[in-house]
Design a protein that fits this description.
The complex is a heterodimer of chains A (480) and B (521).
Chain A: H1 3-9, H2 11-29, H3 34-58, E1 62-64, E2 69-71, H4 73-100, H5 106-123, H6 127-145, H7 152-183, H8 188-194, H9 201-217, H10 226-233, H11 236-261, H12 266-289, H13 294-315, H14 318-343, H15 362-365, H16 367-381, H17 388-401, H18 405-430, H19 444-457, H20 465-477
Helix pairs in contact in A: 2-3, 2-5, 3-4, 3-5, 4-5, 4-11, 4-14, 4-20, 5-6, 5-11, 6-7, 6-11, 7-9, 7-10, 9-11, 9-12, 10-11, 10-13, 11-13, 11-14, 12-13, 12-18, 13-14, 13-17, 13-18, 14-16, 14-17, 14-19, 14-20, 16-18, 16-19
Chain B: H1 8-25, H2 28-52, E1 61-69, E2 72-78, H3 80-99, H4 108-127, H5 131-140, H6 142-152, H7 157-186, H8 191-195, H9 201-218, H10 227-234, H11 237-262, H12 264-269, H13 271-290, H14 295-314, H15 319-350, H16 361-364, H17 366-380, H18 386-399, H19 403-428, H20 435-438, H21 445-463, H22 466-483, H23 509-520
Antiparallel strand pairs in B: 1-2
Helix pairs in contact in B: 1-2, 1-4, 2-3, 2-4, 3-4, 3-11, 3-15, 3-21, 3-22, 4-5, 4-6, 4-11, 5-7, 6-7, 7-9, 7-10, 9-11, 10-14, 11-14, 11-15, 13-14, 13-19, 14-15, 14-18, 14-19, 15-17, 15-18, 15-21, 15-22, 17-19, 17-21, 18-19, 18-21
The chains are: A mainly alpha (480), B mainly alpha (521).
Transmembrane segments (chain A): 6-29, 36-54, 74-93, 105-124, 130-150, 162-183, 203-226, 238-259, 271-290, 297-315, 321-343, 368-390, 396-423, 444-465
Keywords (chain A): Cell membrane, Membrane, NAD, Oxidoreductase, Quinone, Translocase, Transmembrane, Transmembrane helix, Transport, Ubiquinone
GO molecular function, one term (chain A): quinone binding
Chain lengths: 480, 521
């Protein structure tokens, strides 16, 4: 395949790369042009998103650069979610960061670079491409975490993220080198062929290390320790970004590695995934109970949700992968929405608030915001008729279909523990006496995006089930 | 005009839903009127539904089937059992709104919205014909009820709301897994199809237990009933009415719709468990009710005892028992709702539920005392009231299966008379020992309008139960026919031609005649 054809297949990434470089130049000369750069970055994301939608509709599955990177329905599905989350993170950020005195034109550039990295992650079909995408995303993310440089917590978050992220990358690289050593290839399909039947100890070590490294990236227990600290320290729009787009990318990457590279030896990784899933559900639920800071609470909630998503992977079937993709889409809407709601918690003096004490009795002083918040909490808890329930349902349906009944029963029973702390948020907002800390919102962008997300996870979201089911089934089929 | 010409069930679901959204944005007075109007409109539609329902027609009527939500089919349809329970819901809702007319002064719009949402969900539970749709309606009821208890409840409302939510959620999630397994195995979520699907006997046991976990909590059965007294005591009056009146019936409806016809063998195997728990519940909760000082708690425990008679009746596997259980459900829905309203009437005046703070109310509140007396008698099961019909039928059915269970369950009626009459004596009779209670005015027009329709319905059901038995008879027969193959043998089978019992045997007319003729010779 010639270079032109290859470049044509990766045109979304090409568009984003050029846009990022142009914006980088712009920001070098006009660092105060953060808003303009953000708008241009959103336009770039929409443009390349249009190409992704186009190739998703025309169903052109192909690999580029001699099998280093693929363009298939699975990657395209994940890319739509990633670009969407990145665009929302760009739209909600400028006002917030300006108030913190941290808005600079590098913000959209870094988000774009992270988006390119994630794009590469989800379409990688080779360990080397995988690693390049992962690092491109991670390096941008480390900087983003400490973007509010004069804020001690933000700097701490960035440093923590960097040190632990580097450790995880090391683990991942070590696993990859073992896999390469024992299978003789870095290509997923070639590893898949070699990992068939006679699996030696070295290969198992490789698989375990790769899975551990990736579990770190999706913040699944027991590799979740960084999540609450980083989520709490990073500026809230950045946290919203971390909780949505990179989660989708890393999960999609994990799915592809597990299904394409290790798919023939389900027995090797299934137990690992089951243990990680259940640990994430339980630690995510129990850890959140004592939290006073809402951002930390949402961090544990994301750990909890990753656990549910991994149940679909434990099933190891096409249905399971499709279920994970449905859950991811709903999860992006829920988590972005919750963080947007969180960003509207601004006190009368203009400072941003993020603890339980500040939202006491919010339903009396800010009824609409409290209602939206409550919708997200019930949805995250998976209570019908909110749309979060549908994500849990398809995942458990896949587990039941794969005959993993004990996993399904334990997992769904543990979701009741999680319901406790989501209820606590609702309780504080609705049942407690109002403290009147939070000022009326003056940010239309936040109100509208939050409202749209709330509508998406409300029962109206059920109308999207047929579309979501068709797209996710098509995406999952691309892997099998 | 026949109601089947319209998607009547969808309309009945939509009216409260739309009104709920409107109430959120309305001012207090508008919200009250709007909620009352919407619930009355639904009551009218419900009556039309009942009139249009043909007891001899197809098993499932007013069927709707739209593929709106992919795998979740918007499938609605009712049989006679669903019809009766929907009627109960739409009948109690305007009364609930009326009961909250003055008692609720804060956040009226949200309150009315929560109740209207509740009505939609209740009708949905009884009308859903898709397993997942049923689950969504069944579970979604937790949210409005959590808010009703938590926002407008009493002093311990937060504990009660958490307990209610988490208890029932834990029960239900396991049922969801069982439902997913059934959908997977049977290849459909259509309830009428599943009703005639024979699941493997060894799987039935697990499925039955999973459903039992949910319905037993909802019912509630001893020993998972402890959320109920807390929730009842803390909920506002109308919340208690709807909780006792309709939400508890979802458990019984679940047993009837799912556990029995879908898992007949497992149901038969677990009869000792159900009867055992019910027997304990009848005696234990009745005794607990006897020593309560809190009126609402007393009625809450009496609910658990009455529901135990329902479970005994349901698991008799015969027509009489199941019909009786349904009538007890309907009767208890009306009577306990009315009793909670009676408590609400005096609570609104004195703001205490403590029995000792009242006394001698028949002197200063004669109309109230009369109505309260009537509902007390209905709760006891006096002939002529609805309570008698249901309890008699279900115990008669139970007698065919287990004499012991019947014996113990019947003590519940005696104990019931004990605690209810004791309650009534302490509140209405005796001397007026508290000056503030003695100064309370009698019930006004609004309160009479709340209680009188229930009294009329209770009397109707007691005097002419055929109106209520007619629509359900054929559907109960369908269930009995379905589960017949697993029906338990009764423990009181008489030996044929046993000389020691011959003189007690009831002879047929022909037999009697022959004997008489024989003696003449």
């Amino acid at each position: 395949m010639d270079l032109n054809a290859s470049l044509f297949l990766v045109r979304p990434e090409v568009i984003l790369s050029f846009s990022a470089l142009v914006l980088l130049l712009l920001s070098a000369w006009r660092s105060e042009a953060g808003r303009l750069a953000s708008i241009l970055a959103v336009a770039a994301l929409v443009g390349s998103g249009a190409y992704v939608v186009h190739s998703l509709c025309t169903q052109t599955d192909a690999t580029a650069f001699d099998g280093l990177i693929g363009n298939d329905a699975f990657g395209n599905y994940a890319k739509i979610l990633i670009y969407f989350a990145a665009a929302i993170s760009l739209m909600i950020a400028p006002r917030f960061l300006e108030k913190m005195g941290a808005m600079r034109a590098e913000y959209p550039v870094l988000i774009l670079l992270a988006a390119i990295g994630m794009s590469i992650m989800v379409s990688a079909t080779d360990l080397v491409t995988l690693y390049i995408g992962l690092e491109l995303n991670s390096l941008a993310a480390y900087v983003l975490a400490s973007f509010a440089r004069y804020d001690g917590r933000s700097a701490e978050a960035g440093l923590k993220y960097f040190v632990l992220g580097a450790l995880a990358s090391g683990i991942l690289l070590f696993g990859m080198s073992l896999l390469y050593g024992f299978t003789g290839s870095t290509s997923f399909s070639a590893i898949g062929v070699a990992l068939n039947g006679d699996v030696g100890l070295g290969m198992i070590f490789g698989v375990v290390f790769v899975l551990s490294g990736l579990a770190f990236k999706i913040s699944a227990a027991p590799f979740h320790m960084w999540t609450p600290d980083v989520y709490e320290g990073a500026p809230t729009p950045v946290t919203a970004f971390f909780a949505s787009a990179p989660k989708v990318a890393a999960t999609a990457l994990l799915i592809r590695v597990v299904i394409e590279a290790f798919g023939n030896e389900v027995i090797v990784w299934q137990q690992i995934v089951i243990v990680v899933a259940l640990m994430s559900i339980i630690i995510g639920a129990v850890g959140a109970i004592g939290q006073q800071n809402l951002k930390r609470l949402l961090a544990y909630s994301s750990i909890n949700n990753i656990g549910f998503i991994l149940i679909g992977l434990a099933a190891g079937t096409e249905q399971g992968v499709a279920a994970m993709l449905v859950y991811l889409a709903i999860y992006v809407a829920m988590t972005l929405g919750s963080f947007i709601a969180l960003m509207q918690l601004k006190a009368h003096d203009g400072s941003y608030r993020e603890t339980f004490g500040d939202i006491a009795g919010l339903s009396k002083t800010r009824p609409a915001l409290a209602a939206v918040f409550a919708i997200f909490m019930f949805s995250l808890a998976g209570i019908p008729p909110l749309f979060g329930f549908w994500g849990k349902l398809v995942v458990f349906q896949a587990a039941v279909a794969a005959n993993l009944l004990p996993l399904a029963v334990i997992g769904i029973s543990a979701s009741v523990i999680g319901a406790f702390y989501y209820l606590k948020v609702v309780k504080v907002m609705y049942f407690d006496e109002p403290v009147d800390v939070i000022a009326p919102s003056d940010d239309l962008v936040l109100s509208w995006t939050g409202g749209i997300m709330a509508a998406a996870v409300s029962p109206l979201g059920y109308l999207a089930i047929p579309v979501l089911a068709a797209l996710s089934a098509q995406a999952a089929r691309a892997l099998f | 005009m026949n109601a089947a010409a319209l998607p009547i069930l969808s309309i009945m679901l939509a009216i409260p839903m739309v009104a709920a959204i409107a109430c959120l944005f309305a001012r207090a007075e508008t919200a009250r009127l709007l909620a009352l109007f919407a619930t009355l409109l639904n009551l009218v539609l419900g009556v039309w539904l009942w009139v249009s329902y043909d007891p001899a027609g197809a098993q499932w009527q007013f069927v709707e089937n739209e593929q709106l939500f992919g795998p979740i089919g918007w499938k609605l349809g009712i049989d006679g059992i669903s019809l009766m329970l929907i009627m109960l819901s739409v009948f109690l809702m305007p009364i609930c709104i009326g009961a909250s007319w003055r008692a609720i002064q804060s956040r009226v719009g949200e309150y009315m919205a929560a109740f209207l949402l509740m009505e939609t969900l209740m009708i949905g539970v009884f009308a859903a014909q898709d397993l997942l749709l049923f689950y969504i309606f069944f579970e979604a009821g937790l949210i409005p009820m959590y808010l009703i208890i938590g926002i407008w409840g009493g002093a311990e409302r937060i504990y009660a709301s958490y307990k209610f939510f988490l208890y029932t959620l834990l029960g239900s999630v396991v049922m969801l897994i069982a439902m997913l397994w059934m959908i997977q195995t049977a290849g459909t979520a259509d309830i009428p199809t599943l009703l005639n699907t024979d699941f493997p006997v060894e799987a039935q046991k697990w499925l039955w237990l999973a459903f039992f976990a949910s319905f037993a909590v909802k019912m509630p059965m001893w020993p998972v009933h402890t959320w109920l007294p807390d929730a009842h005591v803390q909920a506002p009056t109308a919340g208690s009415v709807i909780l006792a009146g309709v939400l508890l019936k979802m458990g019984g409806y679940g047993f009837l719709r799912f556990s029995l016809p879908m898992f007949p063998e497992a149901s038969a195997d677990f009869i000792p468990l159900v009867f055992g728990l019910s027997m304990i519940a009848v005696v234990y909760t009745s005794l607990v009710a006897l020593v309560q000082n809190d009126m609402k708690k007393l009625i809450a425990y009496s609910s658990v005892a009455h529901m135990a008679i329902v479970t005994v009746g349901l698991f008799t596997f015969n027509q009489q028992g199941i019909e009786g259980a349904i009538i007890v459900m309907l009767s208890h829905g009306l009577v306990s709702g009315a009793l909670f309203l009676c408590v609400g009437v005096i609570y609104d005046r004195l703001h205490t539920r403590e029995i000792n703070r009242y006394g001698g109310l028949s002197i200063n509140m004669p109309k109230y005392a009369l109505l309260f007396m009537f509902f007390t008698m209905a709760s006891v099961g006096l002939p002529g009231t609805s309570g008698f019909v249901g309890e008699f039928l279900s115990l008669a059915g139970a007698y065919k299966v287990s004499t012991w269970a019947t014996l113990i369950a019947t003590t519940g009626i005696i104990l019931g008379a004990g605690y209810m009459l004791y309650l009534y004596r302490r509140i209405a009779f005796g001397e007026q020992k508290n000056a503030d209670a003695a100064a309370m005015p009698d019930i006004d027009g609004r309160e009479i309008w709340l209680l009188a329709p229930i009294a009329a319905a209770v009397l109707w059901m007691g005097v002419y139960p055929e109106s209520f038995l007619g629509p359900i008879r054929r559907d109960v027969a369908t269930i009995v026919e379905r589960i017949e193959r697993a029906a338990p043998a009764g423990d009181s089978k008489l030996k044929a031609n046993d000389p020691t019992t011959a003189k007690y045997r009831v002879r047929g007319h022909g037999e009697e005649k022959n004997k008489a003729e024989g003696s003449q010779h």
